[in-house]
Amino acid sequence: MKLEKLQNLIEQRQVVVVGSEYSDTRRIEKVLEGQFDDINIQKLDLKKAENQQTLSELHRLTGWSNLPMVFINNEMVGGEWELTSQQQLGINTCGRSTHGFANIIGYCGLIPFAALSLWYAMIDDPQRASFVLSALIAYAAIILSFVGAIHWGRSLHEPHMVKSNLLQIISIIPVLLSWAAMLVPQEVGLVVLILGFGLIYLFDRIQYRELYWMQKIRFNLSMGVLFTLLISLLAAQKF
User: Which residues contact 154 (CB under 8 A, 6 or more apart)?
Assistant: First the structure.
């Protein structure tokens, strides 16, 4: 099967599972049953050069090297482990509707960042400005801690002990940085928060490389947060 034909299939069908003739997709099918009516299983014969080339190009496009690969509503959600993990975490695997709500909540979370940073940049009175900046730092610290807590939740369902321990350690770092940001002088606190949001984004970019929608929203939200914090840091120079 050529890559173009496979991509068209992924775009047109609700669920497409791509694997080889040796892939055991029974557990994936069991997870998806009852949630989707349109499930298409594509098991490619890897003895054929065309199929080998198609999978090679698909791996390059998705960044995902394992089989089987699960696509839901034209979005790659990962393999068997990622799919079953989402089910265990109570995440709706039906795709766009759930992702759409997550997008709404996420972008609404940017409103306080934008409003407080703009307000701070417009204030000339040092006392009022300090109060507004304190509110921004406190809100940013809460959000940074929340982003870190996501990895604590993931660690509880991680079957490998080493990776589970790593995720728990990573989840604590944003909390400590948030705490530190609220204890140090405000300008230093902004720098700490910028560093924290930047580092946790880079880690998430690796962790969620198989979830396109998560990659996109994490990039947009992180850039929005970093932009508002940088604006506030520049505005602080006038006092």
Answer: 85, 89, 167, 207
CB–CB of 68/18 below 8 Å? Answer: yes
- The three-point CA angle 70-154-58 to 5° equals 25
pLDDT tens-place string over residues 19-75: 888 888 888 888 888 778 888 999 988 888 998 888 888 877 777 767 888 888 888
Q: pLDDT tens across 117-144, in order?
A: 999 999 999 999 999 999 999 999 999 9
User: Contact at 8 Å (CB) between 69 and 19?
Assistant: yes
Give me the amino acid identity at 210.
E
DSSP single-letter state for residue 47: T
Burial zone of 94 (CB within 10 Å; 0-12 exposed, 13-18 middle, 19+ buried): middle
Q: Are residues 216 and 193 in the same domain?
A: yes
Position 184, amino acid:
V
Q: Give per-residue pLDDT as tens, 66-90.
A: 788 888 888 888 787 777 665 544 4
Question: Residue 75 sits in which domain range?
Answer: 3-88
The C-alpha R_g of the chain, in whole angstroms, comes to 22
Q: Residue 236 — very low, low, confident or very high, per pLDDT cuts 50/70/90? A: very high
* Gap between the Cα atoms of 41 and 56, Å rounded: 18
Q: Are residues 137 and 200 in the same domain?
A: yes
Number of domains the chain contains:
2
